Request: fold
Amino acid sequence: MSKIELSNLTKIYGEPRRKGLLPEGKRAVNNVTLTIPERSFTVLVGPSGCGKTTLLRMIAGLESITMGTIKIGDVDVTNIDPGDRGIAMVFQTYALYPHMTVWKNIEFGLKNARMPSYEINRRIKEVLKLVNLEEYANRRPANLSGGQRQRVALARAIAKKPQVFLMDEPLSNLDAKLRSAMRTELIQIHEKLKSTFVYVTHDQVEAMTMGDNIVVMNEGVIEQIGTPMEIHDEPNCVFVAQFIGDPGMNILVLDNGKRIGFRPRNIHFVDEEHPVKDGDVEITGEVLAIENHGSEFLYYIDIGIGKIYIKDASRQIKKLGEKVKMVLKRQNVYAFDENERRIYDENEVNKIYGYFRETRK
Amino acid sequence: MDILEKLENSYNREIQKKVLAQLDIIDAATEKYHQEKYKYRSIFLEQAKPLQDQLQREKALHKNYKSELRNQIHKVKFEYKGKMDEIKEDYYFDLKEAKQSLDLIKKKIHHNYQKARREYMQAYASSPEVLKAKLNKFDQDFKVYYDKEIAELTRQREETISDLKQKHVEQLAKLKKQMQGEVDEIKKAFLKINKEAYKAEKEAKISRLKSQINVLKQEMKKQEKGNRSFLKTLKKETKAVKQKARSEIRKINRETRNAVNKMSAQERKEFMELQKYINEDFRLRRKIKLDQKEASIMKKINPAYIYIFPAAFGEVLFTLLPFAFMIVGSLFRVNLTNLSKSRWVGLQNFVMIFTKDVEFQKAIYNTIIYSFITVVLLSVVTILMAAWLAKNTKIHNLAQTMVFTPHIASLVSISILWIAMLNPNGIINQVLAVFGIKGPAWLLQENTSLFSVSLVTVWKDIGYYVLIIISGLQGIPAYVYEAAKLDKASKMRTFFSITIPLLAPTLSFVFITKFINSFKVFAPIEIMTNGGPMGSSMVLSYWIYKVGRIGFNYGPAMAGAIILTIMIAICTFINNRYLRKIVRY
Reply:
């Protein structure tokens, strides 16, 4: 129930050449400054190797900090032991103690916190009820299924009543159906506990559905912070635009170096004779691949200056190699500059859009 | 030009073809002889095969019929055992909880009591007199209430526990009864079928098949007998044909050599080059023949038997046969120089060593003491050392190497080294003297000799077992330690609650191997103390050696060896049985 403040946090792997110097390895986390609000469900999302897990482990205290400070609540925890930070972590591999029963697994941390035994008993019963594992209290992890193990790990974290929950891809070892079930369960638990959750994932669907605050990371730097809607509708750079969404935004590089982007769902097929309105752009192309998603079709289309995805919910199925005509509207277009940053200035966007329309005629 | 084409038109190929023709003649002759030789056998096999198949089927059916019963019973028992285990586990869990609950309530009451007292103190802080009176009254009331309450609760707890016990016993008995019932039913069902007639019919069928096969076999043998003289002549003929072909080949080779000698240098070079390919052809032909032979052999024998043969040979010759000889020999007064003069004494040897031989009794006692000292000392030292050394830095690697060095050195040299060091005026006592301690005489003193020897062997073994335990430590996943860190576990607690339990499989291995090795200890005793002084370091192995090889009393020595084997077997069994329970997770 407290916010986390990271300031100028940096992690460099490797050994320094001499004492007092900085190590010369890869910068896994590079000068990150971030405030995670109180009681939020913050999701750190990014491709593999972007430093999100390292960041989480630094907050947990499992990874040494090269530079910068971490504050949880009002306390500077940069040099405090993991056990004293008031946090609980759920690992990707669950990290249950294999030789202990479920009960003992949960009890272990509470005992180490020097809690009286009646309090321990009460809490364990409470959390086991919360995660529906009451009848498995004296089983060992080896005799539980993956989902049950996951819930034990969760119960172990909850029992400590921490200020902050850290979760490192906790659902990635579960099958698809169980994953979605656990997703809802986690959201409910967050509602109930009102703690600060920090959740790491590489799956942008998970991020969009669970988080109320999303942090997109790439190569050790934060690209954008915002609510799911903001991240999806107002990406501030090409990376975020392409990473968020299924599939990501179509980006076309124009001759003048500027980029133009639009979501696969915001471009539509039209008939050959369909009149194109004044402000719209007409695009023609050839179907390269088709994916059947059941309720809709995903087309991969070559339009000359690039290749784009189109999501089409209509039941008129195109064929491979078919020549198709599409229409793009002005309000669906995003513009990016040469450095792949978003252009917000309306006039500038109009200019780029006009240039794009000229080239398509 | 293509090499193949060149080869086809060459002189080499011409010769090869001639040689191959001769080889074909040899093969054909051999084939013919073999066919003739095994003619009747193959006919017999063809005729007998369906009969043999049927026989095997019948036998298997008979066998299955019996094992089916066993299987079914086993299955039922296993099922019930699982159920019983579950009930037992639940019972212990409930029992523990029931026992704990009273403590919890006591704690709670006490907590409330303190709270109430504190409140009184706050309320009457201004007037100590009143406070004292109030508190006194409160304490008295509380005591009465507490005693009553606790008595009641204790009674309740006893009741719950006895209830639980009774329920548990009832459940178990019920399950057992059910299981017995099911087993009986299965047996009954089988008994119904299993009648004498069934058995007799089966046996008659089998014997009929066997006799049919036998008849065929007799016939075959008769025919083979009749054919023997023909075979003899055929063999001679084949031999002659083979010889002729071989001489032909030799002749061709001779001619070729002459021709080559007459060639010019250029031609000869060309010839030699092509001959390489021809030779390879012959080599491949031989290899193919060999492959066929191998396949035909392997078809008849399971290759597993071939693989285990060397080990089995050694085992039988050097372990099982001597052991059998030992068992027999322990019942005799053995005279190795003249075995026929050995005399049967029955169990006299065993009786003698157990009742009259004081040294033997001491040896058993010492062996057990020695094993426990070494195992306990070694496991404590190695675990601590391994926990310290299981890091990958230069210093730790160097330390690992140094710790391992004694294991490479021979036990004899180490023993001699330690004899010098443990001398009453040796380096160890000198070092102790620096601190003002007067060291014992170590190996020369009755009460320290065995301990000194075990110290030396432990010192030597540390390196080896540290290595094993380090590998065990590295098998513990890192995330468990990370979870422990987040659970605020101190270093000590992590070590005892996580490292040691997760290391249990490795530790059980170390325990078992070290126990066996300690029981068999011989060399250091022989070199350092000779079992002395006054038999204080006499162990079983050394006793066996002394009685057998020095005293020539082979009978008692063999009896002692059997006792040693039994001791090792019991120890290993116990270790296996009880450590496996801890190991399982």
Observations:
- The first strand of chain B starts at residue 332 and ends at 333.
- The two ends of chain B are 72 Å apart (CA to CA).
- Residues 65 and 317 of chain B are 38 Å apart (CA to CA).
- Chain B touches chain A through 27 residues (CB under 8 Å).
